[in-house]
# Entry
Amino acid sequence: MLLLKTVKEVRAWVKDMRTQGNEIGFVPTMGFLHEGHLSLARTARKENSAVIMSIFVNPLQFGPKEDYSTYPRDLKRDCALAESAGVDVIFNPEVEEIYPEYPQLTTVDVKGITTVLCGASRPGHFTGVTTVVSILFNIVQPDRAYFGQKDYQQVQVIKTMVTDLNIPVVIRTVPIMREPDGLAMSSRNTFLLTTERNEALCLNEALKLCRAMFLKGEKRSTELIKAMKEHIEREPSASIDYIEICDSRSLQGVLTVKERVVVAMAVRIGKTRLIDNMILGGEGNVPDNDEI
Ligand code: AMP
# Structure
């Protein structure tokens, strides 16, 4: 596996791969890899003859009071894990390589769906995401790019950007990978203290509770959200940022669950902000990857 640091090196590799007739799968990450990232890489490996992963903690998507400087990093460990998942190249640029002028004058903005859910409590976050993903797409020019359902809103925002700007890449979505006890895997889980790690299970438990109520016939969002809030508020370290039930595409809140919806939440456990979600309603309740 190659570790590349510069745009020039990546462009040369891409050119080489294209000349040999390869299809390129791209997995953008911020590193500190876990099984969630690796499942994206493995899916990319199955569907492409060349796989590149970026590891870049993107300053543009962090707010001034957020955890950019403390975000966990371990490149050596990441390289070993990525290689085991079949990644051919890791692109690990310095900030100056991606943003020669920081903060730069050009950004990419998706409107509407970026101001709800995480966008409401993290102003500017999605601008940071769409800007860096556009830059990375322009460098890598992949056939397919892989994102996790864990960041459901992010997937919808990227899909909107790719459609609206006619970027020639297929966006593939990979289901949420969880720890055996149900906690959604996240690089930020490493921040949780031992007692908090246990309390963090309340996110997934609340989603399961919501699904059980829905399957018993409760379709009113207010009742479903109320039950999830009550469940989470039992944990002393938990403070809810949002719990919402939204249309799966527009991300607008719905009053009753008729069509496919996403149940999405962000909850602080101590100082660590965690997110989780599930798809509810629609046919069979189990979304195909591409439909997410
Ligand atoms: P991050 O490094 O947190 O920016 O995540 C990089 C990619 O991995 C994003 O597309 C995430 O949605 C995805 N990802 C993160 N956690 C998980 C998970 N538990 N299951 C599946 N994908 C994930």
